[in-house]
User: Which sequence fits this backbone?
């Protein structure tokens, strides 16, 4: 699609409907889209602008079929997200998007789906999970493996509980640091891969987390027999435009913003182990 | 390299004495006429309204890490090769407001920068730089989204190229198939001819607009003999090019040598000053900065040229991806010669040689690529 | 009824082991069951057992004076628990505690050591399988050390 007459850098001011604190450093903004709703495909992101402070790429983490609300879960990692965390219901936020590639949800139809998330990597996968659950009959086994730093930093706790209680979804959660009030798994998320039940000859894997985590998770998935062309991951780099013009997000010949953020392992495997590319 | 001229193009003779008329007809047609001038001991692209503004009698001596203007007493208007600045600065300025946001009762509103677009004439653009415009077009116009400001400016320029009669010590346009004769992308292409005390231009016109301008300047049809004299100038220029780059398989050559020790070795000299990216006519990276007024009632988003040689370029929360000079130098060079092909189907380098001239450490891309190539032979 | 030998053969740890060795090993094996919160072995105490977990979950804990027990890792179905018996002084470095009803096959370390000494082919098989697990655990621990989710 050629967006001939759109100014890709012109942000659209939208009203924040609701702010929810998820973790001490993580919050969710529910934004009221303009007329017609906000349409995106799972895996895509928006450029969010705070008046006078700056703009950052943030993945969309709401239900793709609920276009009346645009949902972003954001972790405070810099000055822009810090300013964003001070926004309240009724405030205005600038939105440009949606940009980028999507999770292979059509390709995954009829197959088992393994979703691996680490830390704040769960929000970018949540629209895919919603989509799969909205169309549950189209998919085979659905497994979610989630790793967090400790119990206190597990995000979307309530939803994880709900998903875990479903009979048609397998959920494993692990934390890197165990403590007295945690009785679940302790260990890195890669250790969950051998425990998941799926048909590795036909399963599709999707993952988001710190790059190191994804690198090691890929090895476990390959060991289980999922081939590289069926493993998908979402990458992160500096972005100023979101549309392949500013040059910042280049990763060899890929622009993370428009060729990604979702890539198959096959596409990027030669780059994953190269330093400072 | 002497490429065949497109047969449908018209050829004219313009006497040097009528050159002022050419400038007048450009300006008379509503164009801001931009061309070479001498400023700060360099060729600087700026407003030109008179022949006197042109660098008449100046030539430039360019080598790795060296640039000197010299008075040579020649009557030539375009006897120099290239200045440090490229035409990119007019189409995609080094600093430009993207939008203004203003607080309102209900929040704030955003408005795109709506500065009026002025028609510009690029007088004296070199063949390699025509290719640079074609490269920028691919980046800024041919993706899913086009840059609206670039598009508005680009669509209105009058392109008056000047074929190279002289070549610089750092030029390698024939290796990149971009010169020294312009083959496309212009309204008019001039070849300056000075023989036997006569001084005129053979003018090739590719557009109706070009015809109109040159006729207003009293251009008359050129004979085949005169046209072949102009071609001879380009052929002679091509022979003078001493710098060469073997481009065969360069995309894959670099892609398979990302961990070559040469990157680190050469980066030992690199100052990561970003000169190469700033003089490059195709480097397009920009960053966006935010400004607010003191009251915090209005804010601006301003884009400015950025360079992959800075630490900020690859910064994500927590640190920069490309921490070492080796990685930043490698990013620049592999982008130009390798990943650009994957991204846009063409080379990001046009062979203008500016990066070699303006590198304070005299890093020469042609030498560097050849060194990596040679290392594979052993 | 499932024989112990069959259960051993189906556990990932013994996958592909020659039947003659399984027969040797089964003499050192027994079925065990632990209740929630039950301590399987304790930091600092001698251990001469290891376990192949068939069901349930076990935590490896270390006691930190002002924090109480810190869980380093949990071990579940299909995993192996305990390698202190492999090398002198045969003392546990961590406390192993069942978090759920846990069923496992216990193997007598002393018994196995003797058999491995007598048949180095078996010893090689055994130590190779342990090395694989130790490497996996070490790699996972290194990842944990990185604290990748930290901001």
Assistant:
């Amino acid at each position: 699609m050629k967006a001939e007459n759109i100014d890709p850098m012109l942000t659209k001011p939208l009203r924040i409907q609701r702010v929810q604190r998820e973790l001490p450093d993580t919050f969710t903004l529910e934004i009221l889209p303009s007329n017609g709703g906000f349409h995106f495909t799972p895996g895509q992101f928006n450029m969010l602008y705070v008046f006078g402070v700056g703009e950052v790429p943030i993945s969309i983490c709401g239900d793709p079929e609920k276009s009346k609300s645009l949902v972003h879960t954001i972790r405070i990692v810099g000055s822009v997200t810090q300013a964003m965390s001070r926004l309240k219901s009724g405030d205005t936020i600038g939105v440009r998007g949606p940009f980028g590639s999507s999770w292979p949800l059509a390709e995954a139809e009829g197959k088992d789906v393994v979703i691996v998330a680490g830390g704040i990597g769960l929000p970018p996968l949540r629209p895919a999970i919603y989509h799969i659950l909205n169309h549950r009959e189209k998919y085979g086994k659905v497994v979610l493996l989630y790793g967090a730093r400790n119990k206190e930093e597990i995000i979307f706790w309530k939803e994880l509980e709900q998903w875990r209680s479903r009979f048609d979804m397998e959920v494993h959660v692990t934390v890197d640091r165990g403590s007295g009030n945690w009785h679940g798994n302790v260990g890195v998320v890669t250790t969950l891969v051998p425990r998941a039940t799926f048909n590795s000859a036909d399963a599709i894997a999707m993952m988001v987390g710190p790059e190191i985590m994804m690198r090691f998770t890929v090895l476990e998935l390959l060991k289980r027999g999922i081939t590289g062309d069926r493993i998908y991951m979402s990458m992160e780099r500096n972005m100023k435009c979101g549309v392949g013009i500013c040059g910042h997000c280049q990763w060899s010949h890929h622009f993370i913003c428009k060729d990604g953020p979702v890539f198959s392992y096959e596409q990027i495997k030669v780059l994953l182990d190269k330093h400072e590319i | 390299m002497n490429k065949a001229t497109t047969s449908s193009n018209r050829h004219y003779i313009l006497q040097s004495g009528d050159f002022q008329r050419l400038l007048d007809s450009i300006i008379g047609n509503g164009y801001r006429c931009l061309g070479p001038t001498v400023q700060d001991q360099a060729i600087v692209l700026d407003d030109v309204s008179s022949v006197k503004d042109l660098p008449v009698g100046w030539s430039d001596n360019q080598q790795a890490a060296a640039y000197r203007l010299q008075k040579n007493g020649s009557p030539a208007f375009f006897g120099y090769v290239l200045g440090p600045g490229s035409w990119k600065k007019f189409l995609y300025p080094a600093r430009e407001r993207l939008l203004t946001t203003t607080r309102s009762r209900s929040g704030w509103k955003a408005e795109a920068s709506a500065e009026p677009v002025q028609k510009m004439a690029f007088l004296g653009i070199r063949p390699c730089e025509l290719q640079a415009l074609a490269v920028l077009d691919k980046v800024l116009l041919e993706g899913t989204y086009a840059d609206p400001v670039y598009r508005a400016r680009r669509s209105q320029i009058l392109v008056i190229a000047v074929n190279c009669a002289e070549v610089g010590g750092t030029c390698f346009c024939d290796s990149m198939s971009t010169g020294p004769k312009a083959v496309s992308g212009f309204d008019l292409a001039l070849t300056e001819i000075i023989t036997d005390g006569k001084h005129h231009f053979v003018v090739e016109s590719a557009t109706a607009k070009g015809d109109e301008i040159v006729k207003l300047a009293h251009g008359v049809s050129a004979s085949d003999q005169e046209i072949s004299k102009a071609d001879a100038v380009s052929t002679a220029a091509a022979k003078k090019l001493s710098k060469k780059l073997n481009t065969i398989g360069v995309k894959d050559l670099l892609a398979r040598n990302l961990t070559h020790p040469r990157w680190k070795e050469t980066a030992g000299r690199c100052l990561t000053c970003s000169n190469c990216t700033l003089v490059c006519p195709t480097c397009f990276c920009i960053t966006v900065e935010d400004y607010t007024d003191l009251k915090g009632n209005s804010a601006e988003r301003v884009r400015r040229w950025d360079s992959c040689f800075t630490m900020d370029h690859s910064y994500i929360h927590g640190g920069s991806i490309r921490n070492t000079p080796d990685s930043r130098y490698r990013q620049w060079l592999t982008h130009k010669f390798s990943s650009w092909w994957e991204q846009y189907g063409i080379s990001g380098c046009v062979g203008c040689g500016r990066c070699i001239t303006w590198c304070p450490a005299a890093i020469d891309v042609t030498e560097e690529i050849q060194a990596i190539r040679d290392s594979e032979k052993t | 009824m499932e024989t112990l030998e069959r259960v051993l053969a189906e556990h990932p740890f013994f996958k592909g082991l020659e039947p003659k060795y399984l027969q040797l090993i089964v003499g050192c094996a027994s079925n065990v069951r632990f209740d929630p919160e039950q301590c399987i072995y304790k930091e600092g105490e001698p251990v001469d057992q290891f376990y192949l977990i068939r069901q349930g979950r076990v935590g490896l804990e270390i006691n930190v004076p002002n924090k109480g027990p810190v869980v380093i890792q949990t071990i579940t179905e299909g995993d192996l628990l305990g390698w202190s018996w492999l090398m002198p002084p045969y003392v546990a470095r961590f406390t192993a505690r069942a978090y759920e009803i846990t069923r496992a096959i216990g193997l007598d370390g002393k018994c196995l050591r003797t058999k491995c000494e007598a048949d180095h082919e078996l010893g090689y098989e055994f130590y190779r399988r342990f090395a694989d697990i130790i490497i996996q655990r070490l790699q996972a621990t290194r990842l944990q050390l990185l604290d990748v989710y930290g901001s």
